Amino acid sequence: MPNKRPTIKDAHKRIKEEVNRLKESHRIEHDVFYQALEEVLLSIAPLYLADEKYANHNIIRRLATPDRIIKFKVEWMNKENKIRVNTGYRVQFNNSLGPYKGGLRFHPSVNEGVLKFLGFEQILKNSLTGLFIGGAKGGSDFDPKGKTDFEVMNFCTSFMRELHKYIGPRMDVPAGDIGVGAREIGYLFAEYKRITSTFDGVLTGKPLFFGGSLARTEATGYGVVYFTEAMLEMEHKESLKGKVCTVSGAGNVALYTIEKLYQQGAVPVTCSDSKGMVYDARGVDLEYLKDLKFKRRGSLEEYVEKHPESSYVPVSEYPEGGHAVWDIECYAAFPCSTQNELTELDAKNLIKNGCTSVTEGANMPSTPEAMELFVKNKICFGPAKAANAGGVAVSNFEMSQNASMLKWSFEEVDAKLKTTMYDICQNIASTAKEYGVEGNYIDGANIAGFKKVADVMIAEGI
Ligand code: NDP
């Protein structure tokens, strides 16, 4: 029997579904931004109380409003020669401290609200590094997963055809994020060069042969561990040496967190991806994971075939409202996959199991309820905007190297990264003390990051 041709009714139905999806994404789009905003604004209250100038200069409203949001259409051709359409964004949030800087994310969950949240967090994070960089974020709802290199290249080329108008080494310098690694940055940079005929340090996270910095790939994960060590030291806790650690995620941040944990003598026993979690009590096999995730882009399910003594828990078997990875006993926990991946139930499990510290490798992985529990229970808690700032710090080092046409050694970059992470930790610990919230690294980070940007905005006038 021949296929029934779609009727007008079918078309209406599909259109309505599409409209509902759009409506839904618009509704969701603002939740995560307001969650971040509220969290930050509540915690800077001691600064607001201490000095009226912030209220007098309407700083909250001014800082919470992006300088501009660029939204554009990206048309590209898939491997079947079909034209596809995605949306591209760049949220240029604030450039008081320096050129806009922040990653590009390619993931189906990307929308304006998510990028506003990430961009806002980026302003404070960049401020905490002590370097001269403003805050931005961008990306697309394009999903590189399952696409061929050729398709990814087609998409990146089209994306840059529009983005290049708004970026520049002294204006806005994007980097990678979820779904945007060295491959994507390479394609994006090549297209920028083609269009502008310039070899500028306009993107960071570039492959080494395009002017990338040594240790940029490792920087966020390594920095997360340096930050944790500094925090444990300041809080007079035992170091990570010989300690069992749990890590979520199996991407860039997670795997280099695992690598540095091994280098510091710790035992990272878990990792996870969007399908499930691996637990290997002897310590996860990092070399195998790098091959599986970075080269073959496979699923963690395969890990247990190679290591039958480990266990794999698929997402469908996670406890309701929680995640299997946070139910494993550990000294230190490292959420390194995505936002809101560590819930109230997860926090309760970590506390019940005697966890001493939690450091956020991902952006905003802990829900507000989880963070509240950590603070209440005096768990050492390293918030994302401070703990994962190592990536952007080394991106800044990459900009310095590009501008001076110099190349620093891996050891040099790693040493500077370590110093930066210790400085960030010290700064937020002393800020917390100064504003009467000693030991609270969340408030310390928010106040220190906010204050620096706000003071420059006041000095600049309007
Ligand atoms: P990657 O794309 O390399 O890895 C992301 C990892 O998280 C993958 O293992 C992915 O699994 C998993 N993941 C993604 N979405 C979900 C989900 N909804 N549920 C469970 N797991 C999920 O990204 P990065 O490692 O670069 O980034 C991770 C986090 O760190 C992000 O929040 C990012 O913003 C933040 N960050 C990254 C920096 C960097 O330098 N890369 C700098 C600062 C912050 P799967 O493979 O199945 O998709």
Task: Describe what you observe in this structure.
The structure is a single chain. A five-stranded mixed sheet has the order 1-2-4-3-5. The protein has a five-stranded parallel sheet with strand order 7-6-11-12-13, sandwiched between helices. The chain is built from 17 helices and 13 strands. It is globular and about 70 Å long. Helix 1 packs parallel to helix 5 (about 110-130), helix 8 (about 215-235) packs across helix 15 (about 390-405) and helix 15 (about 390-405) crosses helix 16. The protein folds into three domains: about 1-65 and about 440-460, Orthogonal Bundle (Glutamate Dehydrogenase, Chain A, domain 3); about 70-200, Leucine Dehydrogenase, chain A, domain 1 (Rossmann fold), CATH 3.40.50.10860; about 220-385, Rossmann fold (3-Layer(aba) Sandwich), CATH 3.40.50.720. Helix 12 links the parallel strand 11 and strand 12. The model has no long low-confidence stretch (mean pLDDT about 95). By secondary structure, the protein is α/β, with parallel strands linked by helices. NADPH dihydro-nicotinamide-adenine-dinucleotide phosphate binds near residues 220, 251, 341, 361 and 388.
